[in-house]
Amino acid sequence: MTSPARPAPPSYVVRTAEESADREACFAVRKQVFVAEQGVPEDIEYDAYDAGALHVLAVREDGVPLGTGRLLYGEAAAERTGGDPTVGALGRLAVVRDARGLGVGVALVRAIEDAARARGLAAVDLHAQTQALGFYARLGYEAYGPEYLEAGIPHQAMRRSLE
């Protein structure tokens, strides 16, 4: 007896969220993942950095948002990267539950890294939830420093050189 064929994963694109509708889709994904699923207080999920950040959005071919992430660079990133202007900060990476395991997270990280390279950055830092350390390590990120709590969730800093 053969098992039934699995349907092909939906196709999607990753793009920079430049239109207000795309940015709103990014915020909706973050609300679904961080606020509803993980219990992050809404008042700390959205911050002053959102306005100047580069946001990326993964969207299914039928328009359904699947994931998002953001890149901070320049002065906005300095606080999170030890003040080094050549290092960007990847953050707020979120993939909706139904799209996990389809490569969406990898595609979002690579799009953010491409945007960082385009801005002349030499490396990208991130604050990984400890349960996601393996995911980022597989993408070339190296953990450094002690584990700490952010929004009540254990995190660790990681960095990847883009050179």
Automatic annotation (TrEMBL):
What organism does the UniProt record list as the source? Streptomyces pharetrae CZA14
Read off the PROSITE patterns from this record: GNAT
In terms of Gene3D superfamilies, this protein maps to: 3.40.630.30
Q: What is this protein called?
A: GNAT family N-acetyltransferase
Alphabetical list of PANTHER family matching this protein: AMINOALKYLPHOSPHONATE N-ACETYLTRANSFERASE-RELATED (PTHR43877:SF2), AMINOALKYLPHOSPHONATE N-ACETYLTRANSFERASE-RELATED-RELATED (PTHR43877)
Q: Which InterPro entries match?
A: Acyl_CoA_acyltransferase, Bact_Acetyltransf, GNAT_dom
- Enumerate the spans annotated as N-acetyltransferase domain: 12-163
Q: Sorted alphabetically, which keywords does the UniProt record give?
A: Acyltransferase, Transferase
